[in-house]
Amino acid sequence: MSAFWVVWSKECIDNLRDRRTLLSSLSLALLGPIFFIGIMSLVLSEAIEDQDDAVRISIAGSANAPELIRYLESHNTEVDAIEALSGGAARNLVKSGEHDLVLVIPADFGMRLRAGQMTTPTLVYDTSELGSAPQRARRVERMLETYGRTIGVLRLQLRGIDPTLIQPLLVDRVDVASNAEQALKLLGMAPYFILLGAFMGGFYLAIDTTAGEREQGSLEPLLSQPVSRTALVLGKIAATCTYTAVSLVLMLVGFYIGLPLVPLDRIGLALDFTLMNFIGIFVLMLPLTWFSAALLTVVASLAKTYKEAQTYLSFLIMVPTLPIMFTQLFGVESTPWMMLIPSLAQSLLMTSLMTNDAVAWTDITLSMVSTALLAVLLTWFAIRLYNKERVLG
Amino acid sequence: MIVVNSLGKRFGKVTAIDSVSFEARDQCVTALVGPNGAGKSTTLRILAAVLRADSGTAEVNGHEVHTHPDLVRSSIGVLPHNSGVYARLTARENVRYFGRLQGLGGETLEARIESLIDQLEMRLFADRRTKGFSQGQRVKVALARALVHNPRHVILDEPTNGLDVMATRALREIILGLRNAGCCMLFSSHIMQEVENLCDDVIIIAGGQVRFSGSLAELRQAASNDDLEEAFVQIAGLHEAGV
Predict the structure, then answer these.
(1) Which chain B residue is nearest to residue A9, measuring alpha carbons?
(2) C-beta atoms of B50 and A3 within 8 A
(3) Which tens digit of pLDDT belongs to each residue from B176-187?
(4) What is the number of helices (H) and of strands (E) in chain A?
(5) pTM
(6) Domain tally for chain A?
(7) Cα–Cα dist B37/B48, whole Å
């Protein structure tokens, strides 16, 4: 076994045994997709319910308002008629969890309406419970308001009064973002997670193999072995790179499994997350895994202690996300020179790959070559560092 | 055989050693003695090819340190000052890692590790992770790691640092055993009692220079004092320095 593999396997095994740091470096990769997909589903579910799903509601005293029931039913509502109740009894029904949304129609509902008076149906639900009840309650409330307004308008017209008199303001809301666009914007955050996840994967290993090794006093015996420093450094960076790559794969698998669960098609966004897309993203990211491993290793080597290295790297892993923020904030169009910048290039290309946009082969090649070249440069710098006496600290 | 010839090393403006010359014979224990900051560690680090000398030459087993560092690294075993071991690897794995870096492998390596475990009496903790090891156990692991390629030259930088009486005794036995097997043993210390019990030859350095080099008897004679500690203080010139 050559020295490179000896060092690589030792560093990988050594860090595999540190369960706590292993978990914290892979936590983003493991939880990131779940977290992300959860948020996305949550944001979308509201939009979807508004459009498609029938509103289920239990109505007590439905016999008191057959007209209203017909109106609700014609507006995509599934009515579950239950026996007439008082408001208090309905409250208990919801509290006990037997029903989650109850509309109580008072017995004098029809009579009061006919007499031109006001009547108060009661909507009972529990916002402290998880579930769609509060959302459905809002929709029912809106329907009831519309129903009530229609009656109000008719009443005014009957009395010869212009109904607009009592509505001096009519707010016209124009939200130019379609649901699909909002979802796409969210999806654009996925590369950010993936990049951060990859960097996090190598975080602790980069420190452990450099500043950590020096601090625990095993660097000097290691350097007095008949092994070239190049092989040592390459072994260490390769171990870190292995961890960033594993973190990346976990992340991509998470997204591959999770993204189809997000009901994107129901808001008219037909995205096809094929396996090929994800393999493409992995290949695209490979030079970046080495780049990040080399970058983390160089910076951690410059630190004097484990603690110091931790501080440096905590800042460092923010850096690759800066260009992404920049483009997101200012909505910059991708241009060829952006393909030269590691992390920015990958995030732009990844977004395109995820949304099945056309991706130019020249862009992919440019980004991979440029990132690989910078990775080589950093690796060379790391080797130079370890050939100096100063590395002993 | 280790031969050092007018070795000099500076760190920035500080001169760590200035023209140090001595010899350490095979089948002998040679002690490098001096006060803190005398340049002991620097000298040993140059011999281990971890640092490069600014001037002078150093040869281990006939190989020049500067020109053939890897040949030197293969023929010496080094126990650096306060050297640490990998906490998440077992004692055996720590030794195996360095064996592999020395180019050993397979049956040869495993057999060698087995014999070291016996020789250094590490059987009880050989397959435990080194986290939580006592200082004595840790030094044994570090020593086994330094000896895994069966070097004929062994350099130990203040090996008894932090060891209790029993561990010190055990280490002394090991050093003498290696000497009797024909090794050239060079170790640094500032404890004269230890030197008296172990050494054949003594080299005293102070202020980056060799003040004395010879056998224990010659040291007593040169200082005309039977008390080694007194002899050391006198020769190292610590009186004048007012230390």
Answers:
(1) B97
(2) no
(3) 999 999 999 999
(4) 16, 4
(5) 0.80
(6) 2
(7) 18
